[in-house]
């Protein structure tokens, strides 16, 4: 085997020195406070059986798609799924991608053009930033959820540029903070400035909305944005993503989104699982109601244990406790795991240095006793510090 490049070895060594070297975890059987499976759909037996039933009824026996969707991989289930998604989320059209990462790099590398400008929240997901970086438009970040500063940036851009479009990008629930922007004010700002608003709803689907359609639907703003990205690997418990928007946007992405064009389509079983999960979520609200109850109970317990000041305010399923320093947050995570709770540390460089945190993901299947016990253990760690 050839020698590994010295420059790359040095980067790994630096990560190890900073206690930030990533390693693949193994299943640990602990109480789940870390996965994105907010509604427990990933292990839902009904969804599993219904997905198989869909394939059986349609006589589909296939392990793979055999090619890209533009060649041989556009299984008939795609049309059925995209029609269902458009109806469920209240959109003119939907285009399915293999993952949320594929959807974001496909959209942001293809839609904004060389003469355009993209403003993105500084805490936007890596897939959004990577997609923007692959594109030709100028891009600038704006302070997290600071719409006054964003307005000033848009105004200054309009003053110096007479052509080109402006795109504004945010998330309805931020994955590393769990907080949300003022979406109503953001819609009003973009409408008044003629900017195209794009919202990633990955961590809002299944958590907000009457049937789990996301926060934009919950606020009645679904028709006020240019595009939405929804993913199926979080609350829906399966895999893949979709971009929601107009028929024209869908046609454009089919023609120009490279992460869509140059990849093998999803296997039929993945499509059937998304169909089954979407149908299950639309018919059964019990899990979502229990999740909302658990979120409120968690917040009540934060106040009871006097932990609220250490947490970033959140109404979502993601709650983050700031614990500065990679070594400390990693140590606290291990102590919680020793007590039976799977709570993961989020370390720099994933988050900025000094903003390391313990990330608590809440689920419909977490019990009140589990929530009480994990927060009691956390309170004890603060008492020892």
Automatic annotation (TrEMBL):
One of its GO terms (biological process) is biotin biosynthetic process. One of its GO terms (molecular function) is transferase activity. Residues 30-373 form the Aminotransferase class I/classII large domain. It comes from the Bacteria. Its cofactor is pyridoxal 5'-phosphate. Pfam families: Aminotran_1_2 (PF00155). The keyword Transferase applies. Keywords: Pyridoxal phosphate, Transferase. The keyword Transferase applies. InterPro entries: Aminotransferase_I/II_large (IPR004839), AON_synthase_class-II (IPR050087), PyrdxlP-dep_Trfase (IPR015424), PyrdxlP-dep_Trfase_major (IPR015421), PyrdxlP-dep_Trfase_small (IPR015422). SUPFAM superfamilies: PLP-dependent transferases. Signal peptide: none annotated. Belongs to the class-II pyridoxal-phosphate-dependent aminotransferase family. BioF subfamily. This is 8-amino-7-oxononanoate synthase. It comes from Arenibacter echinorum. The lineage of its organism: Bacteria, Pseudomonadati, Bacteroidota, Flavobacteriia, Flavobacteriales.
């Amino acid at each position: 085997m050839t020698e590994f490049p010295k420059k790359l070895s040095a980067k790994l060594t630096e990560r190890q020195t900073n206690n930030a070297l990533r390693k693949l975890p193994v299943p640990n059987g602990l109480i789940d406070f870390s996965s994105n499976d907010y509604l427990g759909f990933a292990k839902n037996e009904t969804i599993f059986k219904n997905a198989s039933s869909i394939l059986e009824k349609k006589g589909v026996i296939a392990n793979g798609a055999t090619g890209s969707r533009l060649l041989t991989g556009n299984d008939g289930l795609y049309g059925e799924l995209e029609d269902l998604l458009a109806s469920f989320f209240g959109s003119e059209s939907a285009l399915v991608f293999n993952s949320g990462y594929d959807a974001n790099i496909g959209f942001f590398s293809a839609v904004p053009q060389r003469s355009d400008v993209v403003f993105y929240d500084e805490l936007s997901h890596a897939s959004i930033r990577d997609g923007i970086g692959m594109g030709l438009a100028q891009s600038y970040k704006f302070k997290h959820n600071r719409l006054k500063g964003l307005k000033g940036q848009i105004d200054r851009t309009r003053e110096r540029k007479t052509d080109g479009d402006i795109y504004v990008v945010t998330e309805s629930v931020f994955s590393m903070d769990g907080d949300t922007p003022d979406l109503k004010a953001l819609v009003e700002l973009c409408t008044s400035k003629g900017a195209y608003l794009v919202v990633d709803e990955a961590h809002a689907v299944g958590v907000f909305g009457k049937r789990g359609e996301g926060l934009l639907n919950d606020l009645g703003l679904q028709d006020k944005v240019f595009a939405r990205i929804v993913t199926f690997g979080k609350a829906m418990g399966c895999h893949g993503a979709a971009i929601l928007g107009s028929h024209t946007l869908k046609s454009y992405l089919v023609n120009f989104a490279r992460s869509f064009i140059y990849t093998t389509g999803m296997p039929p079983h993945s499509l059937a699982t998304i169909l089954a999960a979407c149908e299950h979520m639309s018919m059964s609200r019990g899990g979502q109601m229990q999740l909302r109850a658990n979120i409120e109970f968690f917040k009540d317990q934060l106040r009871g244990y006097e932990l609220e000041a250490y947490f970033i305010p959140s109404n979502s399923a993601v709650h983050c406790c700031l614990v500065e320093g990679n070594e400390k947050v990693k140590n606290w995570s291990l102590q919680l795991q020793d007590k039976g709770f799977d709570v993961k540390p989020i370390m720099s460089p994933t988050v900025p240095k000094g903003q390391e945190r313990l990330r608590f993901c809440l689920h419909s299947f977490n019990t009140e006793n589990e929530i009480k016990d994990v927060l009691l253990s956390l309170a004890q760690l603060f008492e020892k510090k």
